[in-house]
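ARCHIVE CARD
Drawer: 12
Card no.: 0347
Subject: one protein chain, sequence and derived structure
Cross-reference: see card 0346
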Amino acid sequence: MSRAPQNASSSGLLRRINAVSVLDFAWANDVFTATEAMDATGLTRSTVISRCAELIELGWMREVERAPEPAGKGRPARLYQLRADAGYVVGVDAGQHRVLATVSDLRGAEVGRQEHPIDRAHDNAPDRLAVTDATIDEALAAAGVDPSRVLGIAVGVPALTDAQGATPPGPNTFWARMNPGFAEHFRERGWHVTVENDANLAAHAERALGAGRDVGSFAALLSGERFGAGIVVDGALVRGSNGGAGEMRLLDYVVGVGSPHGLGHLARAWGREAHESGVLPADSALGALPTSAIDAPAVFAAAAAGDVGAIAVVDRLADRLARVCAVIDGMLDVDRIVVAGGVAPVVGDLLRRTAALLDSMVHPPAPELVASSFGADAVIVGASTLALERVRTDALDLALGVEDQGRAPVTG
């Protein structure tokens, strides 16, 4: 719900509260009548109609034409609808090796997408800002959306962030390079900006649309190159005083783990290690691959086909993952751990093996282990969803640059 200004008059404050109630109802429904809005909000008919007229004038809603009623049926009820094209949000996954940007309308439908790799030879703060700008602009162009129509942006970064989107000094230059002042940079465009840790955005995606919807406490465990956890306890995202909750450098000190390297990194490294050591059997599918072609999907596919060398790698990964999950559960007592990131689509057998080990490491019941349904899009889904949520929260404080506020035909 939009925040009302504290210096508003009583009548102005009441009008704003009522407008927010009607707009929230429009956001949660498709085409509706004043009667339906009255029943849901408890407002009078005249108030609903007046606030709908106000929201139409502001550009947030439209009155929808309907087919004429047969003769003698009386005047048809007015139909109203949120304008999904009243504005747009941008989600960005500004990862270590690539930048992905999407553009979504106010219903959350994706209308544009673009991705660019990060050139390792030019991986510095200015170039990251430039690549991110170019990726966003190309996504907007693909969507046919002018930048002036963007209401909000959320950027996910593999670094700690505070409530203002800034990253505190880290042990090296990595965090500063991953978050080169995105919050200030995009505020200069006049957009509502959120910069958030990538694992926290994955948790937001799971809580809003994925495997975290039906549980009170869970962890979204990004598991590609490095482990990172987004933590939700009793329905609330846990960030910590400096945004460091879920930072997995503590794994350096866990016996049997020793580093925050993720499943993607370890599957590739251990698969290549087995390949180069000559321990794979002669009929190994993994052994038949060139070393450079061995990555996490190749290891898991070979294990699923019964390759004993690949199975040995998966068993080793299961032991590592079980220890990581035991640490998370021991500290937080979560109901579920969602393995997220690009490896998620191929970890089914790994999770079954991990669950068997985890049962003996934690007090029962052990947390349920599931794979995210978002795959490599977990962070971008969380970014887009959070950007839309923030716009919805502050809707009446935002100016729309929309045209054609007249009637529109009913669709669908």
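Annotation on reverse: The first helix runs from residue 10 to 28. Confidence is low (pLDDT under 50) at residues 1-8, 404-412.
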